[in-house]
């Protein structure tokens, strides 16, 4: 599997699936979550409401992932994952790693070959860029070791230079 880092807008990425740094409600929010909901159009919110009505009445747990269609996005699938919120006392790096691994599990179930991630839990959830980058790269590499040939490419698509530098460093160090 090829693992790459780039600066860009996740909502414009042509991949089989993009990963949304969602909140547990799945009903939209700020940052990456808000941008994905805006770009995907109102059918994404309707799909998330249906998930809440049926299979996830209490919301999506931290560290887990679930997919919806991408609707108006270039990517046919959106994989929603809920990262741990440091400000709320969720400081377990295992939960952070789980976001990446569970998202890849869902991608493999969808038969996606290319997946693009944001820096889940960096930003408003309070995790340092370096910590997120190390956890993300380690989780993806570990998942690939256990699931060889399941995916062709994982891209980390980051919206600022601080995140880009952190992920570049993590990729080189791993």
Automatic annotation (TrEMBL):
Name of one Pfam family that matches: Macro
Boundaries of every Macro domain copy: 1-174
Matches recorded under InterPro entries: Macro_dom, Macro_dom-like
Protein name per the record: O-acetyl-ADP-ribose deacetylase (Regulator of RNase III), contains Macro domain
Originating species: Krasilnikoviella flava
Lineage per the UniProt record: Bacteria, Bacillati, Actinomycetota, Actinomycetes, Micrococcales
